[in-house]
C-alpha cells in the first residue's frame, strides 16, 4: 500500500473519532480546502431578505417601501412564491410590502450573519401536512396554489395630475396666513389681496363677497363655520368680520386685536382668532362683542388654530415653535409641547382616534409629530425633508395629507400609524401654503404663491380616469 495514501487514510479515521468541537477546529485550521458549513439550522427566509437589504442603498430601500404599483405587488407575489418552493415558507396569501418589510427588519436585527454553524438536526419535509396530489401536473405545491388564488387588493392609484386648476391672482406667498377654506355647502372661499371670493364647486360660479380696499385693509385669513352659512374674515388691521355667505352682507366686525389676524377656528357659535399680537381671542358671535376670553401663552405670532372634533380642546401653534392645547374653561394652556424647532402652523386633530393630534414644523424643523393629548405623551415623528405648511386628516381612512414649502413644494399622502408615503404630488412652483378638504372628504385643494389653486383626488374611492389639464381663469383682477 502506498505510504502517502495510508497516511491520509489514518488521518481521516482519527479525525472521525474526535468530538464535534475538536473536529470543527481542525477543519477551520486546515488549509488548501473549503469549509462547507451545515445549513440545517439557518432561517433562510430571514437571511435571504437580510442579504437583499444589505445590497440596497438607503434610497433604494425607501423607494421600495413607497412603491404601490402593480409591478411592485407582482414582485412581492413572485418573491413569496419562490420562498414557498425553495424555502418551504408555506405562504398562502400575498403579504403587504410595508408590513412584510417591517416584520423582517425587526427579526433581522438580532441576526448579522447569513450562515449559522450548528450540529446536524433532522429536517422536517416541506408541506408534510398537505402533500401535493400525485395526479397533479403542476410543479407547484398546494400552498403556492393557494397563494396564486388568493384575492388581490385593487391597486391604490392616486392621480398625480390635478383634476382642476384655477387661477388665483394676488394669492399671497406668506407662511403665516390662511387664505383658503372649503365649506360644508361646497363653497370655496379664497382671500385675494383685499377681496374675498366664493367659488361654487357645483356650478363653478364665482362671486365677490367683500372688498376691504375701501378701508385700506387686506385679507389675512378666512374660515367657514361648521354649517357653511357664515364665513369669518381676518384682516391685516386686526379686525374679524362675520359675513353671511348667502345674503352677501356683513353681520358684524369684531375688534380686540392690535395686529393682523392670521388664524381662525370655529367651535359651534364660538369663534377663536389668533393674531400677530400673540393673543388668542375667543368670542360668541351671538353675544355682544365685549364678551370675550383672552388666551395668552405664545411669545410670538399665532399662526395655527384647530378645535378638536369633540369641541373640548383648542390646539394653537405659534412662531415661538410651541404647540399649546387649551380647554374650554381655562385661561392657561393645559398642555405645552416644545419639540418643534421652527414655527408650528400645520395642526390637525384625528377624526378616528380620540385625543390624537398631529403637527408640523417650519423650515428649520421639517418634522411631522404626533401627540396623545389624553396623556400628554409624544407618539411618533418623521422628517419630511421640507417645511410643513398644512395638515389634514382623511375623513374615511386613517390617512393624512401634508403640504410643504422649502424646498420641495410637494404634497404628501401618509398612512398612519406606519407613516409610509402613499403618494407624492408635485405641480406648484412655490410653497404650498394653503390647504382645504372638500365636504365629502375625497378631494383637496391646494394654493401657493404661484397664484394657482389645484384640486386633487387623494382620498377618493372612485376616481376619474380622465383628468382636466386646462387652466380655468375664474378669478379676475379688480382694476
TrEMBL record:
Belongs to the WD repeat CDC20/Fizzy family. Keywords: Cell cycle, Cell division, Mitosis, Repeat, WD repeat. SUPFAM superfamilies: WD40 repeat-like. PANTHER family: CELL DIVISION CYCLE 20 CDC20 FIZZY -RELATED, FIZZY-RELATED PROTEIN HOMOLOG ISOFORM X1. It comes from Dicentrarchus labrax. This is Fizzy-related protein homolog. WD repeats lie at residues 212-253, 295-327, 425-458. Residues 166-456 form the CDC20/Fizzy WD40 domain. GO terms for biological process: anaphase-promoting complex-dependent catabolic process; cell division; positive regulation of anaphase-promoting complex-dependent catabolic process. The keyword Cell division applies. InterPro entries: Cdc20/Fizzy (IPR033010), WD40/YVTN_repeat-like_dom_sf (IPR015943), WD40_CDC20-Fz (IPR056150), WD40_repeat_CS (IPR019775), WD40_repeat_dom_sf (IPR036322), WD40_rpt (IPR001680). CDD domains: WD40. Coiled coil: none annotated.
